[in-house]
Amino acid sequence: MSDNYVKVQLEQMKSLGEPGEKEGADNEEQVPASSPSADPPSITISTSDVSNASITSKQRGKSRRKDDKISSGKSISDLSLQGSVVSAPAGKNLNRQSQERTLQLKGSGKSLQGKSENNGNYVTIHPSKNNQEERREEAMKLSKKRRPVTVDTAKAKTSLEAMKISIKQLKWKEFPLGRRAPCDIYWHGVSFHDNENIVSGQVNKFPGMLEMLRKINLSRAMRTMQELFPDEYDFYPRSWILPEEYQQFSTQIRMVKEKDATLNPTFIVKPDGGSQGDGIYLIRDPSELRVMAGSQAKQSVVQEYIHKPLLIDKLKFDIRLYVLIKSLEPLEIYIAKEGLTRFCTEPYQEPSQKNLTHVFMHLTNYSLNVHSGNFVHSDSQNTGSKRTLSSVLYRLAAKGVDIKRVWSDIIALVIKTVIAVVPELKVYYQAEIPPGKPGPTCFQILGFDILMMKNLKPVLLEVNSNPSMRIEHEQEISPGVFEYVPSPVDEEVKVGVIRDTLRLMDPSLKKPAVSQLRAGGTEIPMETETPAKSLDDGALPSLCLKQVYPKYTKQFNYLRLVERTAALFIRFLGVKGNMRLGPTAFRTFIRTCKLSNSNFTMASVDILYIDITRRWSGAAPDSREAGMGLQAFVEAFFHLAGRRFKSLPLREQVLSLLELCEAQLDSQSSVEDRRSVSCSRALSRAVKTQTPGLTSNPQLSSPAPLRRAASQDNRLQQKLKPRSLRANVEN
Ligand code: ADP
Predict the structure, then answer these.
(1) Which of 345, 462, 616, 669 could link 372 by a cystine bridge, Cβ 3.0 to 4.6 Å?
(2) Could you read off the pLDDT of 248-283 as tens digits, one per residue?
C-alpha cells in the first residue's frame, strides 16, 4: 500500500455498525434472510479524498471487539476492504464459529485463551496478554527453524511475477523449473492437469473447475438452484442454453412482448467457451441470433441484459472479486477484501437499436476497452479505467450508498454461487482422487465478475476459474510498439490475494494433531502450529482474505440440497474414476432407497433412466462417457420427489425425498456395520489381522449390492477426457 494512503472511517458507515450499538433492529431490517449482515468496512482512500472522513486507529480497536461478538454467534460480519486495515488477529478468523475456552497447557502452567470449532476440528490458542510477547518470540524462533515451504511454479504462466513477489515476501522457496522431489505446493496456470502424477502436496486448481465454470455449465447449475430457491438465486440473470433451448427462448420472448408491447428487452449472447468478451453481442429479438445461422449451431448462453447498471462518471463498470475455495470437504470459502473494478470507456446509454454494437459502452472487459482511445492507465487506485474496489465503494459511500448492505449482498451472492457448483465439483474430485488413491489436496482462487444494478443489487455475470493474475499491462510506447509495464493497481490487489492464499495453505497449519488438551472435560485436537501463530507473525500485513464459510453456515446451509443429492449419486457411482451412473446402479439406488412400489415399478424406473439419460446425452454431445451424469440424476431425483410428495412445493419435495433416502441408507449401513462387525470378529479369530484403512474408504465399505451394480455398470463406462482448456482471463 503506498504511503500517501490513509485509513479512514466513513462517517456514514459509523452510524451503521459501531460496537456497542444495537445490532438488532436496523441491521435485520435491511439484510435479507439469507444474507450475512456486514460490519462497516474500513476503506483505504487517497489523501486527496480524506476531507470528510475520520482516521481509524480507534475504530480498529473497536472493530476488533465487534469481531469478538461475531464469534459468540451474533450475525455481523467484519469485511474490511483492505488487508492492512483488518483489525482482528488473522487466526481468529479461522475460528469464528467457536466457543471461547480457557485452556491449561499441561506442564507449562500457562493459561491460554482458546477456541474450539463446533466440530472440534481446529483449535486456536490465543495467548493471554502477559504472554503475548513471549509467544511471538517462540513463534519467530519456530518459523526460523522450520524448513521453508516449497512451491513449484513451473506451470504458473502469467501468475509467475505475482507468485515470485509473494514467495519472496513469505521467505518460502520457489522452484521455477519444477523439482524432482515433491513440493509442498504446485501452482498451475490453467488446470489441475497442468502437471500430471502429483501424488502429494497441494495444487491450486480443483479437477473439473474449468469445465464446471464454462458458461453453459454454470448456467445449468444456477438454474437448478433457481428452481429450488427462486428468491435466493435471483441474482443470476435469466439465461437460455443454445441451441437446445432456442424454442423456449423465442416462445417466452414472444409471449412477453405480446403481453406488453412497450417492453423491448435486450439480450446478451455469449459463446460457451468464450472469454474476454470474445464473440459476445447484443440482440433484441430471437431472430437476430447469429448462432442459429449455420448448420453447425454454436453452443452459447443467451441472457437477459441488465439494462440499468449502476454508473460512475456516467460509465458502466463491473467488479472482479477474488474468492478462495480453500477446501471442498468441509466447504471453506474466503473472499478478498480488495478487488478490481473495470470501467467502460464510452458513456453508457440504455440499449437501443443504434447503440447495440457499441462494445466500449456495453462491455466492461479490460481486454476490449484497453484498445479504446479513451482507456486511462492510472497509477492511482481511484481513477482510470481500472480501479480498486475499495476506491469505488468509497465513492459510493460518499454519495450516501449503504455500503454495508452492498457488501453483505455480495458475500451472499458468492456463497450461494459456490454452493451451486460444489455438487458437480465433488463428482469430479471423487473421480480424479478417489478415497484411498494418493493425490494432492486442492484449493483455488476464482474470479467473480459482478455487475451492480442501478438499484444497488449485485448481479453475477460469470465466474472465472483462471482469473488473470498478471501484474503488468500492455502499453503502446510508440505507434505499433507494445511493451509490458508494471500496473500498480493490479500488483496491489493480486499480490495480496496470492500471498495470503499461500499463507492460508501453509502446510505447517495442516499438521496432524499431536496432543490433545482437555478443557472442561472435552478433548480438543491441537495442531502443532496454530493458525494464529503462523498467520500473525508480525512481519506480514494482516490477511486480506476473509473467511465467509463456514462462518455463515447457519444462514446458508439449507441451500445445500443438491449437494446432498450429489452425495447419493457419488455413493451409487461406486467405481473409482466414474462420473456417470449406469442403469444397474440406478436400479440399485431405487431398490436400496425403497423408492419403487406397485405404482412405480422397476420397468418404469428403467424407462425413466433411459428417457433422462438420452436427453442429457443430447445436451452434452461431446461427452465421451455413457450413462447418467449428476445433472441428469438431479433431474431424475426431482422427478421422483415430485411423484412421491405431490402436494408439496419442489424444495420440500426434494428435502423429503432426501431425508427418506438418507434414512434408508443409514439403516442399511448399520445393518452392514453389524454384519461386518460379526464378520470381522470371525475374520480376526481366523487371521488375527485387519487391513488398516479398509473401513475409512467409503467405496470399500459400501454395501455389497452397490459394489456389484457399479462393477456391472463399469463395463458401460468410458473414461472422460478433459475438455479444451481456457487461458487466464482478466476480461
Ligand atoms: P466474458 O467471459 O467473455 O468476459 P462475460 O459474461 O463476463 O463474458 O461478459 C462480458 C461483459 O459483458 C461483462 O464484463 C459485462 O460488462 C457485460 N455483460 C455480461 N453479461 C451481462 C448482462 N447479463 N447484462 C449486462 N451486461 C452484461
Answers:
(1) 345
(2) 999 999 999 999 989 889 999 999 988 999 999 999
Q: What's residue 403's pLDDT? A: 96
Q: Are 298 and 330 in contact (CB under 8 A)?
A: no
Is 343 in contact with 369 (CB distance < 8 Å)?
yes
Is the per-residue pLDDT at 716 higher than 80? no
Instruction: Tell whether the model's pLDDT for residue 120 goes beyond 70.
Output: no
Nearest to 239 by CA among 229, 252, 254, 255: 252
What's the gap in Å between 348 CA and the centre of ligand 1?
Answer: 14
Residue 70: how many CB atoms within 10 A of its CB? 22
Higher-confidence residue: 293 or 149? 149
Pairing of strands 386-388, 340-343: antiparallel
pTM attached to this predicted model: 0.76
Q: How far is the CA of 461 from the centre of ligand 1 (A)?
A: 6
Do 158 and 146 form a contact (C-beta atoms < 8 A)? no
Q: Which residues contact 292 (CB under 8 A, 6 or more apart)?
A: 242, 243, 246
333 with 555: CB under 8 angstroms?
Answer: no
Give the separation between CA 268 and CA 301, rounded to whole angstroms: 8
Q: What pLDDT score does 382 carry?
A: 84
Ligand 1 contacts CB of residue 342 (under 6 A): no
For residues 310 and 294, what is the distance between their CA atoms, to the nearest angstrom?
37
Crossing angle of helices 403-432 and 630-644, in 10° steps, is 110
What pLDDT does 583 receive? 96
From the CA of 467, how far away is ligand 1's center (Å)? Answer: 15
Nearest to 330 by CA among 492, 97, 527, 156: 97
pLDDT of residue 286: 93
- Spatial separation of the C-alpha atoms in residues 538 and 530, rounded to whole Å: 15
Per-residue pLDDT, averaged over 671-677, amounts to 66
| Atom of ligand 1 at shortest range from CA of 304 | 23
Dihedral angle, C-alpha 29, 30, 34, 37, nearest 10 ° = -100
Give kind and range of the element (H or E) at residue 342: strand 340-343
| Ligand 1 nearest atom to the CA of residue 449, by list position | 7
Place of cell 452434452: 620
Rounded CA-CA distance 461/301 in Å is 12
CA of 462 relative to ligand 1 center, distance in Å = 7
Which residues make Cβ contacts (< 8 Å) with residue 80, sequence separation at least 6? 41, 42, 63, 86, 87, 337, 546
β pairing state of 515-519 and 545-549? unpaired
Which sign, positive or negative, has the C-alpha torsion 345, 346, 350, 355? negative
Whether pLDDT at 151 is above 80 = yes
Question: What is the 357 CA–ligand 1 centroid distance (Å)?
Answer: 14
How many other β-carbons are positioned within 10 Å of the β-carbon of residue 553? Answer: 15
- Which is higher by pLDDT, 193 or 522? 193
Rounded distance between C-alpha atoms, residue 11 and residue 20, angstroms: 16
pLDDT digits (tens, 9 = 90+) for 164-199: 999 999 999 999 999 999 999 999 999 999 998 899
Instruction: Determine the 3-state secondary structure of 175 from DSSP.
Output: strand
Report which listed range, 138-152, 294-308, 579-593, is most confident: 579-593
- Nearest residue to 309 (alpha-carbon basis) of 446, 510, 452: 452
Ranges 291-295, 658-662, 707-711, most confident: 658-662
Q: Give the 3-state secondary structure of residue 600.
A: strand
Distance of alpha carbon 351 from alpha carbon 359, whole angstroms: 11
SS3 255: helix
Ligand 1, residues 284, 304, 461: which to mutate, most atoms within 8 A of Cβ? 461
